[in-house]
Every structure is written in C-alpha cells, then in structure tokens.
Amino acid sequence: MQAPRLSLFSSMRLSFRPSLTARPLLPTSALLRAAQSHPAPTPSSRTFTISAPRTSWLQPKRRLVFKDPKGRPRVATGGSVRGTTVIWGDYGLRLRDHDRRISAAQLKNGEDVIRRRLRGLNYRFFNRFGANVAVYTKGNESRMGTGKGAFDYWAARVSVSRIIFEVKGDVHEQIIRDALRLAAAKMPGKSPLVDLRYAFLTAFKGYMSSLRRAILQ
Predict the structure, then answer these.
(1) For residues 106-125, b (16+ Cβ closer than 10 Å) or e, as one string?
(2) Which residue, 123, 97, 107, is CA-closest to 178?
(3) Which of 23, 26, 68, 213 sits most deeply, having the most CB atoms within 10 A of its CB?
(4) CA proximity to 191, closest of 203, 179, 201, 200
(5) Can you tell me the distance from the alpha carbon of 18 to that of 11, in angstroms, rounded to the nearest whole number?
(6) In this predicted structure, what is the pLDDT of residue 149?
C-alpha cells in the first residue's frame, strides 16, 4: 500500500464563510444627504501645493492688532528718485500733487478702467502701491477722548511724484495714454502720465544733482 504524500499546502483550506454582509442600496434621497454632509472641496480651498497663496494688493495679510495712526508719507529730500521712475513698464501714472491717502476703492477703480480700455490687447499691468493702511472713522460731533472710531477701509499713503500704475505691451501709444488718462480721473489730485524716456531723464538729473552735492562737500 502506497503511503500518502505530505504536501506543504495540504493543511491549507479555503473557507467561503461570509465575514461581511452586503450593504443595501441607498435611495437617492439618502445619497443626496450623504453628499451634502461631505461636500466636495471648493476651488478656493487650497490642496497640496508648494506655491504661496495669491495675495490681494488691496488688503494686507496682517491682522488688525492695533490702530494705525494717520501719519504722513515719507518724502525723500536727499536727491533720491526711488519710486518716482518707471521700472517695469513703458508708461506710468505719477501723482504730482501733494501727498495723498488713496483708498483701496480708488486704486481698484483705476485698475478696472485701464483693463477695460485695453481689453483684448497685448499688454501687462503693474501696480506700484498696496493698500496697507487702516483708516478709521467715527460719527460727527463726537466728544474728545472717544478714540479713533471703527474700521472703515484700507488705503495707501502716496507721497508726491510717486508712480502709481505702469503699463507695458505691444499697444499703440495713444491708446495707452487714453487708458492712463481715464485712470487719472479716478485718482485724487493731479496725476500726469509719464513715459519711459522722461523717467530716465528725471532719474539722470537726480543722480547728477546728488553727485554734484557730494563733490562740493
């Protein structure tokens, strides 16, 4: 009589006992309630990314911890031309009037006017200022010592001769001038247009005047 063979897999048995019961099909109403309790991520929610979130130049990232003073913008008196020349674009809008506090709504209106006038054209828009100053207001006939009031809007301090907007692109000069003229009407004070050639000339004059003073000293 032949001895039975011993195999490695002889002790293994397959079992088909049901460990989990089949789930019943949910009706449509139950599926809708489940979808509402677990909504899909919105486009504004950030998923995994290594890029920084896009910030708004009309509102700072910092929180309102203390109230900002009214203050005055710094005016360079030593021959500096920082912020007064066109850097990225070919044409710019300069504030020639006294220092102003331009609100975020006025900056946004100026940007919208330029983009509306140059719609469909090959251009690039650059803003040189961000609204980072909190402005507070209170009611009329308030007694002294009642504080600065409640937060009203964001604004930007712009000193004299500073560039506000810049435009660059393959666009006719008269069209860009017309767009900046419409934006200047939305700004407080006088805001003439500045082109790149004039900006270089102004920067060169400022450099020569500072160099002349350094030589005389």
Answers:
(1) bbbbbbebbeebbeeeebeb
(2) 123
(3) 68
(4) 179
(5) 21
(6) 87
Q: State the 10-residue block means of pLDDT for the chain, 217 residues long.
A: 53 50 54 58 55 70 78 74 83 82 90 93 90 88 86 88 89 89 85 62 66 75
User: Rounded to an integer, what distance in angstroms lies between the CA atom of residue 184 and that of residue 55?
Assistant: 25
For residue 84, give the 3-state DSSP assignment: coil
> What's this model's pTM, rounded to 2 decimal places?
0.62
Rounded Cα distance between 139 and 107, Å, is 25
Beta bridge partners of 103: 155
| Domains defined for the chain, CATH in brackets | 91-129+157-216 (3.90.1170.10)
> Which pLDDT does position 85 carry in this prediction?
83
Who contacts 79 (Cβ-Cβ below 8 Å, separation ≥6)? Answer: 206, 207, 209, 210, 213
Sign for the CA dihedral angle at 108, 109, 114, 116 comes to: positive
- Residue matched to tokens 């990314």: 49
The neighbouring-strand residues paired with 105 are none
DSSP structure string for 125-156: EEE-----EEEEE--TTPPTTS-S-EEEEEEE
How far apart (Å, rounded) are the C-alpha atoms in residues 72 and 94? 18
The confidence score (pLDDT) of residue 112 equals 93
